[in-house]
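Model it.
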Amino acid sequence: MVKYIYGLSVVTILLSIMTSCAAAPRASESLGDGRMITFSVSLELSVRNAEETRDILIEQIRHNNGLILRMTGNFITAQIPSKNLEAFVSNVRSLGNIEDERRTGIDITDQYRDNISRLKSLKLFVIGIWHYLNGQILLVRY
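Modeled.
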């Protein structure tokens, strides 16, 4: 979207940022009670030079160990580790005028615990199959 302010063209860039939510407690923000929250930040940024700003954003994403998930026109979706999120958002705010900013959080604690439980069960199953194939008797206690 192009706006004209005082005779200058201003381009709006939409940026969607998600924190990493890999299977590790440190990958998303962990609350004091052991809850794990992954955050999503959406920014609508008005800038004078979209191409230059896009290049700066790509460099900032890489600098913050991020990953570009989708990039089309003036829309970028990136994944940034939670420890770098606030610094990244602060840098993005300095690139232009913020037209809209939204931040949401999702509790992923239960999904994480379910995946850990499934992984433990799968490991025990594989160990049992290995012992069976090698003719050994294995007693597993839960």
